[in-house]
Amino acid sequence: MTSERSAVVAMRGISISFPGVKALDGVDFTLYPGEVHSLMGENGAGKSTLIKALTGVYGIDSGSIRVQGEERLFRSTADAQAAGIATVYQEVNLCQNLSVGENVMLGNEIRRAGMVDWRATHAAAATALAELGVHIDTRSILASHSIAIQQLVAISRAMVVDTTVLVLDEPTSSLDRGEVEQLFAVVRSLRDRGVAILFVSHFLDQIYEISDRLTVLRNGTLVGEYPIAELSREQLVAKMIGRELGELDAISASAERPIDRSGTPVLKAVSLARKNALEPIDLEVFPGEIVGLAGLLGSGRTELARLIAGADRADQGQVEVGGSPSRLGSPRHALDRGIAFSSEDRRAEGIVGDLTVAENIILGVQARRGALRKLGAAEVQAIVDEYITALGVRPANPNALIRNLSGGNQQKVLLARWLATAPELLILDEPTRGIDVGAKADIQRKVAELAEKGLSVVFISSELEEVLRIAQRVAVLRDRRKIGELATQDVDLDGLVAYIAEGQPETTSSDREKIA
Amino acid sequence: MKKFLSHRLVWPIAALVALIAVNTISRPSFLSITVQNGQLYGSLIDILRNSAPLMLVALGMTLVIATRGIDLSVGAIMAVSGAVALTIIEASPAPGNLGVVMIAIAAAVGSALLLGVWNGFLVSVLGIQPIIATLVLMLAGRGVALLITKGFITTINSDPYQFMAQGYVLGLPFAFYVSIAAVIVVGIVERRTALGMLTEAVGINPEASRLAGVRSRGIIWGAYIASGTLAGMAGILYSSNIMAADANAAGLYIELDAILAVVLGGTSLAGGKFSLAGTVVGVFTIQTLKSTITFLGVPPAVSPVFMAAAVLIVVLLQSRRFRAFFQTAGRSALRPLTRRPDAKVLS
Amino acid sequence: MATLTAERGPVAPTTYRRFLSRHVSWIPVFAAIAILLIMIAGSMAYFPNFQLPRILSSILLDNAYLLVLAVGMTFVILTGGIDLSVGAVMAFTGILCASLLSQGVPVAVAVPAMILIGATIGLLIGVLVQFFDVQPFIASLIGMFLARGLAFVVSLQSIKVDNEGLLWLQSTRFSFAGWYITPTGIIALLTVALAAFVLRFTRFGRTVYAVGGNEQSARLMGLPVVRTKLSVYVISGVCAGLAGIVLTAYSGAGYPLNGVGTELDTIAAVVIGGTLLTGGSGFVLGSMIGVFVYGLIRTIISFSGAEQSWTRITVGALLLVFVVVQRIIVSRSALSK
Fold first, then answer.
1. pLDDT of A57 over the 80 cut
2. CATH number of the domain located at residue range(s) A2-241 in this protein
3. What is the pLDDT of residues B163-178, one digit of tens each?
4. B201 and chain A: CB distance < 8 Å anywhere?
5. Residue B129 to residue C277, Cβ atoms within 8 A
6. Confidence (pTM)
7. 8 Å CB contact of C149 and B308
8. Using CA atoms, how far apart are residues B199 and B219, in angstroms rounded to an integer?
9. Top-level CATH class of C27-39+49-332?
């Protein structure tokens, strides 16, 4: 079917590099009119970069982009829009303070003698919305409507300006089931009108519900293009994650050590949930245990970690730390109870760029001690030297500015910061992302050593080999709920991949209450 | 660490030295210091004395700016402080009594401290933008000062009070000692305790600091309290200088001079790392600049034009676009960049 | 295909709800009007000499310059910026105008020239903000310093104006049933009307609101964000120039120390009039209410014989209340999402 029609978008040999990383390497991408096409890939795969190249946010280093047969060079988002490519973002980039009708027609208001004719403008907006089956008061302020409606407003705006390619970036993250169905009905009707729709989402079930074709990226290269019927979920996940065997030691011997789960858990979370981020989840971690959290991007791993770490507040659920109920209302509370959290976004939430390595390492300790009791120079030196040596930070200069270190060494400094606070539970969110192989090995080895000595760890990583290697148990998340847990001894990589893709959720205690 | 410090101060000190050099060339008497009655006199001594109020205010402003904030109310706080002190002294039957003067000063600085608490509350607890939060006091503060002086310019006759701004100790102006003492105390508090580093962390990356368990609210609040208190002390010096409480003129535009001094000293308006030494250099630079303008015969009322030019130059030099303008020659720098090379690479 | 009328949550579109959902940004303005009415009612009850038409007319007379400034400031604040230079620019154009007139330059030349100068200073500020990433308050501080110093360059003392053409603006009065108005008042009201029209019925005006609401969205929607942000500072400068002329006509002289602190009064009037400091919400009609509130406060204080310094304190307190309430509303609506 698709090969007979000519492509509306043909990207060939697209390469984009940033300082230190090649985000896309010779990627081809084709979009046909009247199809819903999903772009799939994990973190670092290049998905977002490719979309930004198509929508004019990034320029390309090499390759070509043809829209409806014509070669185009996008220097700005306006250029892409002029070529008929419109994007509806997760944050719905509209103006909340203006009316619905105005948002639909902004920049294209109907004018009479130089003046905006509001009646005609609102009528045109109402017509555009009606074509998508939306009947709301166009004079009402956009902010008074739900995200679901706002997205439909954004889509109808795209249709007003004659869009041929509609990019939907994570449109369902904030929608409930009914709203998703409404959105999909609109998407199907647009597809039937000949619009090409690029659908980006992490919800596997929804991908399979709405898409016609898939393109899979991994590590900046194209893995392949597939009609949806020809690729099972398991195959898809396998292609996205890949099987990379690192040059890493067998740390798995350590993981096979027995864990005493009879005593009080270091952490016990029951029905922990947060609106629009996480469905109720239970989790227990015992002393000296490493629990991995596995799942695709968007499955809720980071959200769960942040709740346990006090970085976000839970809407419901209870947490017991070392047996006593705790309210983890801030990172400070969590640290006081021995829970340390290493965020996945080093740059925005980790390093304090203009401070030195030493200052970054002792920041957590100093914060706990308070502003008035400064750590003595000797004490600082002792701590800093210990960790620089133990983790192998290069250059081994405590006075270097942390922003001048490589990613791997920055991560080690951050790890040192958390370890210096002598935690009972250490949560690591993607600690080995974007760092060289040697540093990866160092960090994993260190974590295993510490666990042997009694530290409990929650370990989040998209690289499933790491998780299997280090952890005793893996909790698998999908679409913001926990599907189940596996003992790492009992499962291999294929099995884990299959479980992530196909595993059925076990009923938890809170689910049982709902069903009853 | 020393390397870093000297690197940062190189330009501010060079600017100050250049300014002094220009002054000396055009009037060799600039550097001369004479001794009369055991007291030193001269242009340099004048600068040391006259810079004292600005030094105090700029110290506080440095801390506030480091937390990514600003304090526009310092001039109004100066006015209130002077009004409180002089009203107490004037109402007292023994205005020349040292005890009375001490009480008056304590009350004045105490009021200023409370105003700082107020500002800090608005910013750190209620989360109001610093500009607006301190703007409110900037508006209302002078009115309050006028009320305290009942609309008049209160004048007093009190030797101990006069001593604050006009007295000499060991040949140097007492006011100078006050400003140096403030520099030392603030320096000790910021650098001998962990307060300085935590303040910088909060300014550089508030979210990372929060996740590391830093109590940002207290730190930000404290910065405004410090700024208010120091402004209160500056108010004492100012009113002591003219032996009057002039609610309208006290500290007029001093917040702008203070911001300029901080920026000249190398601290960025975006917050984060700050340099007290840089601020000190900046204060002396501004005071020398003002002295130069006066010497050139420019009416002091017109000096804002020169200050505007100075701020403009500093601000442009700090602007990345401006530097890019010169590096990549012309128009292309003005067009919005299609790709931001330091943008986070998402999947 | 499903028809979408129902939304999440229990929403019965009553008239009240519909009104709210359409006009939520008018609510702060209604609050300002309520305050104004309460103050008027209270004054009429408390002061025996309080004749409403006369008082309101005299408020407009005394504060016409502030009204013009408030219009310009509204544009700037709507985009999320701020302009601290307006008082100084008003003084500069005022005294320059007086100086030119006293040297024989015809009114028809001097007046447009002042507006042009105001526009130029506004453009300078806008360029600093837009192209050199200077924070608006620093950039407008530079403008303030510059204008204030230039005012003193023109003259260190006040310059009296004898020019009939300019003085006519103030000396003429059109009276009707207890109300009166001068040409300066008419100029101020016309400025308000023109601004209200532009903001409601032109693409430029709607872009101002869009930029203030969400600048990134506006950019992604293809709106001319850069041009708009520059223009609002130019408009503020033009208003400052116009205010300088109005003030000079009103006081019969140019005075370099005019307008010290006026920018703060202007901001206070705009905020009290219901414009959100965060941008994207507000109306020039609201700012006009704010100016009347300000003027009424001044009048009440002088009526009651209290010291003039109470004006600034009251205005400051009122500003604070409005800002805190705005903040509470904003954080509540963010939480409910």
1. yes
2. 3.40.50.300
3. 888 888 887 888 899 9
4. yes
5. yes
6. 0.79
7. yes
8. 6
9. mainly alpha
